[in-house]
Design brief:
The complex is a heterodimer. By secondary structure, chain A is of the alpha+beta class. Chain A has a single domain, classed as Dimeric alpha+beta barrel (Alpha-Beta Plaits), CATH 3.30.70. Helix content of chain A is 24%, strand content 30%. Chain A contains 2 helices and 6 strands, in the order E-H-E-E-E-E-H-E. In chain A, 18% of the residues are buried. Chain B is mostly helical. In chain B, 42% of the residues are buried. Classes of the chains: A alpha+beta, B mainly alpha. The interface between A and B is medium-sized, with 23 and 41 residues.
Chain lengths: 133, 413
């Protein structure tokens, strides 16, 4: 079963909080996630992963008159956290997906303390109906 | 003396698992043995169409693969000697009896690939690779994961078998029943993955159903007297026979009672029915035979209204005594509703709410919705259809369930 893990990151004043960290804190954080990514690759569990550019670059688009795009610039005051990226994993059980999400959530932040950021875990829809046997 | 390349390809496909099994009996390294067999197959595919097929093609392939493997081991040993100056034992060259290894090696290989140390997804991948001869890219695309991901999964599975230290030999009589059960389950799962394919980007998944049937045929040929092997092959044929009628032009699901039965595959139905009748007559009844028998009753009905639901209900009764699979209990409730009315079916669903395997499961909601609709309780049916649509992770099912809820809601308005 495939799950999408949506990683949220705390936002500072309009952009990632992470941009204001000390360099060693940043490196530790990145190294933690890279190591996890390699582990999942080696285990044959990683389907894909992508990171997103900072929230200051985000735009909200709605279709306006005649379907023309109406673009709103950030920052978007309503959220303290912002989607930072996603991972898609193919695992045997939901429990395994939760374990992976917990590893992501515990990525170290300032001073090496785990961030414990929320990770949203969603199962992917498949095109496979159950058998009718 | 040239031979059509397609004919050579078919022959090689059948021989590949036998050759791999024979080579593995001597050399325990799964990955190295597979590489050597691949090289031998490649050599045969290039030479046989022009030179003709040798008298003993299996022996030829085993010889070539063993030689490649020994060359490889020698090279590794020489390198290690140079690097570390330690001697290592070389495997013996294959004896004359080796080339006579038979189709039993395919079975041996299946037992190994469906080893208890492996998770089901790993066993499925390894079986398709080593026994089915599918490429890693084909398997990856069938399971919609990147090739690198599938390659890692397969290589891990081989490592796991190697480190488990299980000897590559026929399991004892006691073990065989259990291991064969695992093999049948793996083939059943492969079939289901492929059978449910609708259209479009997933079309290659269809190959999985064809492959599962091909492998089940091989096992049936090797164990013709085994009733459950025959039962599984029959179940696959009787289910696959409905494939052409099971989805609409846009890939939407069409339930059994609304399928165009003229599109069912009569030849597959006849073959499956004969298989399951012969198997049941032997008296060793099992779950695959019973499921095949149920599929046969459905397939025999010219119209949905002609379905012999009393017989289906009786068969589900037998099946429920052999397995505690909650899906069987669900289907039995549907059959009971068809024979004794929706209230009887709904009553059978009551105790299933307490089953943790089914609590909140979309199939339980979907069956209840269907029976509530039959009972005329439209509001409750709408709620149950919606609950099922929310729980399912299958897009075609979600679309079907959502449509049912919307249809009932529109009737009410």
């Amino acid at each position: 079963m495939k799950f999408m893990l949506l990683l949220n990151a705390p936002r500072g004043t309009g952009d990632w909080d992470i941009f204001s960290w000390a360099p060693e804190d940043f490196q530790r954080h990145v190294a933690h996630l890279k190591r996890l990514g390699q582990e999942l690759r080696d285990a044959g569990e990683l389907v894909s992963t992508e990171g997103l550019v900072g929230p200051s670059q985000a735009r909200i688009v709605r279709a306006g008159r005649d379907g023309a795009p109406e673009v709103t610039d950030g920052p978007f005051a309503e959220s303290k956290e912002f989607l930072a990226g996603y991972w898609i994993v193919d695992v045997d059980t939901p429990q395994r997906a939760y374990e992976i999400a917990a590893r992501q959530s515990s990525a170290p932040g300032p001073g090496g303390r785990p961030l414990n950021t929320p990770v949203e875990v969603r199962e992917l829809m498949s095109n496979v109906p159950a058998s009718d046997a | 003396m040239t031979v059509p390349a397609a004919q050579v390809e078919t022959l090689l496909r059948e021989l590949a698992p036998q050759v791999l099994g024979a080579v593995l009996r001597r050399h325990r390294d799964f990955a190295a043995a597979e590489d050597a067999v691949q090289e031998a197959l490649l050599a045969a595919a290039t030479r046989w169409p022009a030179d003709g097929v040798p008298d003993n093609p299996r022996g030829w392939l085993i010889q070539v693969a063993s030689r490649r493997l020994i060359d490889q081991v020698r090279a590794d040993v020489a390198r290690r000697r140079r690097e570390e100056e330690i001697a290592s034992e070389e495997p013996a060259a294959p004896g004359p009896g080796e080339a006579t290894a038979g189709p039993d090696d395919t079975l041996l290989l299946l037992f190994m690939c469906c080893h208890p140390a492996l998770t089901r997804p790993s066993a499925i991948a390894l079986t398709l690779r080593a026994v089915g001869g599918l490429t890693t890219a084909e398997i990856a695309s069938a399971f919609l994961v990147p090739e690198a991901t599938m390659a890692q999964r397969i290589s891990r599975a081989k490592q796991r078998i190697k480190s488990s230290g299980v000897p590559f030999q026929m399991p004892t009589a006691d073990e065989q029943a259990e291991r064969l059960g695992a093999v049948l389950h793996v083939l059943y799962l492969v079939f289901n993955e492929g059978y449910v394919t609708t259209a479009g980007p997933d079309l290659q998944r269809r190959d999985l159903a064809i492959e599962a049937i091909r492998l089940a045929r091989i096992v049936h040929r090797l164990l013709p007297d085994h009733s459950e092997v025959a039962g599984l092959l029959a179940l696959m044929l009787l289910t696959d026979a409905r494939r052409g009628a099971r989805t609409g032009p846009d890939g939407e699901l069409i339930p059994l009672d609304r399928q165009d039965r003229s599109r069912w595959d009569r030849a597959a139905i006849a073959e499956g029915t004969a298989l399951v009748e012969a198997a049941l007559a032997r008296g060793q009844v099992g779950v695959y035979q019973l499921q095949a028998a149920i599929a046969a009753v459905h397939d025999e009905a010219a119209r949905a209204d002609d379905t012999d639901w009393a017989q289906i209900l009786a068969l589900y009764g037998l099946l429920a005594r052999m397995t505690d699979n909650p899906m069987v209990a669900l289907n039995r409730a549907v059959a009971a509703a068809m024979v004794h009315g929706p209230a009887a079916g709904l009553a059978l669903l009551e105790p299933l709410d307490a089953d943790p395997r089914l609590a909140g499961h979309h199939r339980l909601h979907a069956v209840r919705a269907h029976l509530l609709e039959k009972a005329g309780d439209r509001d409750a049916a709408i709620a149950a259809y919606r609950a099922a649509a929310e729980q399912t992770s299958s897009r075609p099912e979600r679309d079907y369930l959502t449509t049912q809820a919307a249809r009932l809601a529109a009737e009410r308005a």
